[in-house]
Each structure stands twice: as structure tokens, then as C-alpha cells.
Amino acid sequence: MALWGGRFSQDPQADVARLSESISFDKRLYRHDIMGSKAHVAMLAKQGIIPEATALAIRAELDEICKRIEAGDFKYDIAMEDIHMHIESALIGKLGAEGARVHSARSRNDQVALDIRLYLRDAVDGLIAGLREFQKALVDRAAADPEAILPGFTHLQHAQVVLFAHHLLAYVEMFDRDAERLADCRKRLNVMPLGSGALAGSTLPIDRQAVCDELQFDRITRNSMDAVADRDFAIELLSALAIFGVHVSRLSEDIVLWSSQEFGFIELGDAFCTGSSLMPQKKNPDVAELSRGKCARLCGDLMSLLTLCKGLPLTYNRDLQEDKEQIFDALDTAELILKVYPPMIGSMEIRADRMREAAADPALMATDLAEELVKLGVPFRDAHHRVGAFVKYCKDKNVALDQVPLEEMQLTIPEATPVFLELFSPEKSVAKRDIPGGTGYAQVASQIARWQKVLSETI
Ligand code: ARG
Questions:
Q1: In terms of CATH, what superfamily is 361-458?
Q2: What is the pTM of this model?
Q3: CA of 114 to the centre of ligand 1 (A)
């Protein structure tokens, strides 16, 4: 008979038990469940709700149960539904009436809210650490080739030349915001819900603040109904992870493109690629492709959780049990990406010659010509128009922009001076973008130094 079975005369039908159970996925909450129960019974004893000796016996037995679970010596049974029931019934099995006191002033509703918050707090700390390693791998890669130049793209068309390091540092910025979002979400999840009971608190004289202090939460929840019904801390986390997934998918796409034969800008280490079962010559960037693909799961997990919570009346509803698989899937997915990606970035070799060759396309410097005209006092829109006409002239004559003598250039750009003929150097183009946030050598070098310092202080 289930622990809640007092008013029942039948066990759940077999398929109902399969529908009800969550032990198959919530067993991973065991450590946090035990941590919460230990703090709870210590408080119950301090408040005189249970005897001190009982609290000591329960705490010791909870440690034993923890060891048994970790040793793989703990029996799971779907009839016992979830991790909370498994641990409580193991306690009662061992301690009898003493163990039966553990659930005083507690419901599984506030218990599971506590467990998830404890679990996610640890998970978020791990994710932030993983993001820092990811950033470090990118900064190291940028620092290894600080002067490599490649074409920057808009609309996947050649746009202007940029430093490869600048391109990588763009992702460092994105992952920094991801880490900030996680840290922000941690503030709201680090609030202690136990003592909210099923929904209305307890008539017993509990000390919620003591449990809060013991478990190192920032504060206790202020409304028992909110505390058992709320999952928005998890929605926030999954939203931060979905955004992270989108960032990873974009980096992955750059890597897939760069490692194609057409670009040929990079080569990834063999350990991070796979071959084809048919074509012997193939070396595919599967890690990048799969990470791009796994972004779909991260977005899907967020959508599932949002949909799960939509329209639920207060307070706890059993639907909420379905939050865990999405939460765990998102965490597992993000953790795996964070494990694999940094060493893959470390394995990346670049073909600076191929990048430079692509960056030598003089059309990439067309904007520089227009800006040179602005320096001579020509209004930008007119300058843009003149250079546009020059580009068309070159295209019609099938000649590269940097192969046109000055007098011919002056047909479309009357103000052009000999200086204009010097503007087609990718190196000069980069060097002149010496403004904060720009791709100039000095700017990028100082950003690399900044990130190295920031990361050495956080890792
Ligand atoms: N396994 C449940 C969950 O994850 C615990 C709470 C169950 N509460 C209840 N009254 N049935 O949500």
C-alpha cells in the first residue's frame, strides 16, 4: 500500500502506476532530497516537534540511504512513485515509528519545490563554470592568431574585412551574457520554499528561517501558494539555456562553413570529426552539426515547460511532475555541449593564408573608399553613390577594383586622389578601424587582454 493509502481500498491499476511514477527520472534528485530532509528534521527537533534522538537517528539513516543509492544498492519500485516516497519508506522500513515522523509539517509539494531548487542551484553553478571554460577556449584561440584577417559577412555575402580574433570574441560576448542570465536566474531560484506544506503552510511551530540558513538560501519564500505552484525559476533557466543553444548553433554554423572545402579557413582536430561509411575522403564537422541540432532540444524543452505551466490553476497540480524531464534534458544537453566544445575549439587549426586570400577581394574595401570621400567633405550618401557607380563600372568592365588607374576611377569618383589606390589593403582597412568595439588590431588586442584578465579572475 502506498504511503498515502489510508483512505484507499485498492492499489492503483497497473498502467496508472506507470503513468504516475516519476522515480525513473526523479531519482537523480536523491542527494538534494536527503539534504533537504536532514535540514528539515534538525529544525523539527530544535522546535521540539520531534525528539532530538529521533532527528539524529533519521539523519544517520538518511546518510546510509544516500550511500546505498550511490553504491547501486537501493531498490526502486514504480509503485512507490517518486524519490520522496522511496526515501521516506526506506526510512520507515528501518526506523519504524521514528522514521514516520520525518514528514511532519511537510508535503511532497513543498519538498519537490525545495529539491528542484537545490538541484538547479548546483547545476547553474556548473553551467556558469562551463561557460567560462568555453569563453577561455575562444579567447585562447583568438590570442593564438591575433592578426589573422578574414572577410566578415552580412547576408552571407562578403562585407568588410575583420580579424578572425574579433569574430571569435563576438561569441565570447554572447556566452558572457548567457552566464549573466544564469547568474540572474540563480537569484530567483535561491529562495527556500519548505514550510509551505501542500499549499497553506503548517499549524506546527516550524522555523523556516533555520532551514533556510542551514541550506544556504538567500531568503524564504513569502507566499506558500506561490511557493508550491511556481516553476518560473525553471522556465527562466530553460530560457537562458535555449538562448545559449541558439548562440552555439550560430557558432556551429560558422564552423561548418569555415571547414567546408569552399571556405577552407579551418581544420578541426580528428577527435572532433567523423568519417563517412561510404566516402573514404570525408571528414565531417559532426560535433558542430550535432550541437547545432541539439539547440532544437533546448528550444523544445523551454516550449514544453511553458506549455506545461500554462493555464494551471493554483496551486500544485500533478502536471508539474512533468517538469523534470524537460529540465534534466536541457541540463544534460547544455552540459554535454559545454564539455565537448571547448576542447574542439582548442583543436581548431586555422588556414590564415586561405583567410587572407579571401579577404584580399578589393570589393571588401568599397566602404573604406566612401569613408575616405566623407573625410574630403563629400556627404556620405553621395559618397556611397559614387563608389557604387565605381563598383558597377568595374563589374561592367570585368576588372577588379584595385586594378583601375586613378584617372579611370575619377570617371565615377571625381574627388579620388592617389590615396584611394592605397585603400585596397586588408591590413590597412583593419588597422584603421581603431575605435572602441571595432576590429582594429589595437582594439582587438586590448579586448583579448581584457578577457584574459576577466577569465583568470573567474576561473
Ligand atoms: N513527484 C511529484 C512531483 O514531482 C511530487 C509531488 C507530488 N504531490 C502530490 N500531491 N501528489 O511533482
A1: Fumarase/aspartase (C-terminal domain) (1.10.40.30)
A2: 0.96
A3: 12
